Amino acid sequence: MELNTIKDAFDRVAKKQKLSTSKSQEVIDQVGHEIEQALANIQSIHDSASPVDQKSILAELKTKLNMVGPHNQLEGSQKELSINLSKFPKVLDKFFNPDISKAYRNVDFDPHIVNQIIASHFYREGLFDIADCLINEAGEPELISLKSHFVEMHRILEAMRTRNLEPALNWASTNREQLKQIGSNLELKLHRLQFVEILQKRGRADALNYARTYLAPFASLHMDEIQKLMGCLLWAGKLDRSPYTELMAPSHWEKLAEELTRHLCTFLGQSYESPLSVAVAAGVEGLPTLLKLANVMAAKKQEWQAMKQLPVPVDLGKEFQFHSIFVCPVSRDQGSEENPPMLLPCGHVLCKQSITKLSKNNTRAFKCPYCPLDASVSQCRQLYF
């Protein structure tokens, strides 16, 4: 709702700006037309014109410009634009808190871990010079070990952007056993792209030789795929008009580059997404809720910095949900190994500590807080996520 209000205010300003620009151009065209007409009149009678004739033309031009009234025409549209421009910052101030430091909590971060996260992010993004500078200035030379792995990754991906699959194929061949263990057919997909490239650029004979050398080992498990590629040989030179034109789609390169990046990061023990990027994106999404909480606590003269957990949930998108969690509906505590979720006979779930309190330290039966059924501790079963 807030974003819609801001968008509506912005659209109003943009509309007034377009109207003002259109009106200004219209007035400029009118003034320009009158001036050009006067110049043409002066030029047409230049040889025989007397000073009196030129003065009369200029006087007529002045009269026409006064009739156009550029200042009066522009005043209205400019005034409306100025009014809307002055209102827009007020709308932004109303819905956006300029001081986001209110949502800050004092946390004792380990500087070494922070430096490692930032350096890893720069290496992951290919900003090697910046990461090296950070490591040198932070005095943590051991973090340079992260660099070599990401250098190789960017070398492979950069080659793929130029349609060079050799580095990627060499990597897939070296890590063939690991790829098999996770059920990946990345190597076959790379050979398929290479086969199509050879067929398009070098012809049927070279493509067939490549297939005999590199695709034959996959025939026992991927015969359908191999047969499709062999069918492409019949359309050499006109693959774009064949039933197999889908194999030429640029999206194959993009998807394969993404899949390769995921495998590279996995084998490096790294996540596909940069942890720093994920943390910043999640923080931005949760920031409005935290700012509202800080304002409410300040109004109640309470210090939320001292709270061990937030009194309100911070709902993040599914892209930030990496594993299942359980939050007890009674205590609001997140489930853990020491305080696991427990399934009651009625089907409701509470954390172990809540059940312990309800049963008076496991000494008696208790009533489920969400239905009238009774339960005993022995009837509760631990859930595993």
TrEMBL record:
Residues 328-371 form the RING-type domain. GO terms for biological process: proteasome-mediated ubiquitin-dependent protein catabolic process. Pfam families: CTLH, zf-RING_UBOX. A zinc finger (RING-Gid-type) spans 328-371. SMART domains: CRA (SM00757), CTLH (SM00668), RING (SM00184). Keywords: Cytoplasm, Metal-binding, Zinc, Zinc-finger. It is found in: Cytoplasm. Its main location: cytoplasm. GO terms for cellular component: cytoplasm; GID complex; nucleus. One of its GO terms (molecular function) is zinc ion binding. CDD domains: dRING_Rmd5p-like. Residues 149-206 form the CTLH domain. Residues 328-371 form the RING-Gid-type domain. PANTHER family: GH10162P, MACROPHAGE ERYTHROBLAST ATTACHER-RELATED. This is RING-Gid-type domain-containing protein. It comes from Nyssa sinensis.
